[in-house]
Amino acid sequence: MLLLFEGCITYTQKTEINTDGSGEISITYSARKNNIILGKIDGFAFTERKARANYESTNTDITELKVVENTSDSTISVSVKLSFKDFNKLSLAKGFSKCKPSWQIHQDTIFFSFIVLPDSSVKEIPEIGGSLHFEYHFPTKIIQTNGKKDGKTVSWDFNIKDLSRQQELTAILYSKKSTCGIFGIELPLLLIGYITVIFYRKKIRINPRY
């Protein structure tokens, strides 16, 4: 996904993760036709066959794939929608082979990370070489993240040249097991206490000795 050749490219990845680590990804990217060599820019496929080969795996299923050539600005854009069974195994797909995904569920928290491995070739790309946008929608409340948070959604933005260094997308979430409050753990306890009080009141009325 991230070994890039010279030329401007824009990339957007939107991911929705379920608590069990499954989820869906929507990817769109585009580049000028004269910068595309043999249907791809070092990892970005610009034909349906090559794009399908990039994102299909035993862990992922492509649900939608479109390749559109825009003659007005000489660009080719690709949009891919896919579902995945396990976020931790996302790199089984060739298109994610240069990334390290992690979704670790603990008793009270969930640790998320998506590491983009460094690519030395991007040092030769001009500053206007392109941009990448990553967006993740999480199933539970976010405790901490190094991205831009908006409710349960976090986003990260990079310039292509940023990929000469390793980039880490991280977040810590509440697990559903740890979610509490009046509608979580406290409500059952209040109900038990209420039922206990009612029971003993009735018992006292029936038998004054109590």
Beta percentage is 35-45%
E-strand count: 13
Percentage of helical residues? 10-25%
Sheet of most strands? 7 strands, mixed
How does the helix and strand content classify structurally? mainly beta
**Quaternary class:** single chain
Write the layout of secondary structure elements.
Elements: E1 9-17, E2 23-32, E3 40-41, E4 44-45, H1 48-55, E5 60-70, E6 75-84, E7 99-105, E8 109-116, E9 130-137, E10 142-145, E11 148-150, E12 153-159, E13 167-174, H2 186-206
Parallel strand pairs: 1-9
Antiparallel strand pairs: 1-2, 2-6, 3-4, 5-6, 7-8, 8-13, 9-12, 10-13, 11-12
Brief overview:
The protein is mainly beta.
Describe this structure in words.
The protein has two domains: 9-178, no CATH class; 180-210. 14% of the residues lie in helices and 42% in strands. It contains two helices and 13 strands; from the N terminus they run ββββαβββββββββα. The strands form three sheets. Strands 5-6-2-1-9-12-11 form a seven-stranded mixed beta sheet, with helices on one face. Strands 7-8-13-10 form a four-stranded antiparallel beta sheet, with no helix packed on it. A hairpin with a 4-residue loop joins β5 (60-70) and β6.
Please give a handful of descriptors for the protein shown.
seven-stranded mixed sheet; 2 helices; 210 residues; disordered N terminus; mainly beta; 13 strands; 14% helix
